[in-house]
Amino acid sequence: MAGPRILLVEDDVVLRDVLRRNLEARQYEVCLADDAQTALAALRATAFDLVILDINLPDQTGWEVLRIAQQEGSLRPHWRDGDRPRLPVVVVSAVRVSQARLKEFPLLAYLPKPFPIEALLRLAETAGRRQGTSARPNPPLS
Description:
Elements: E1 5-9, H1 13-25, E2 29-33, H2 36-45, E3 50-54, H3 62-72, E4 79-81, E5 84-86, E6 89-93, H4 99-104, E7 109-112, H5 117-131
Parallel strand pairs: 1-2, 1-3, 3-6, 6-7
Antiparallel strand pairs: 4-5
Helix pairs in contact: 2-3
């Protein structure tokens, strides 16, 4: 059985490869994007269980990706936390993000870079539980 589908939007090749290898080792299906336009095309074509989104992309910001995807309806809130919808998005950023910006989108999580890979893997595991599949608890790869 295939694991949850994850869209990984990261322009840093090394970080993207480390994250991809760790996620795929746990049976996740990972789609890669290194810029906003590729991410938007993927969101239009596929429903994802989790989106890992870098904010500083070469062509647009991750915030613009979220805004456009929401306007187009390609990023639908489908998790609930009480009465509040949760987007299946984890924002990762090397730049400090304001609380006001974080409140603009009901994200699953925000991880400032550098972050422990275990934190991201726990969030992916949560996505797996929401989908009804489970991931294997392998240790992180280097």
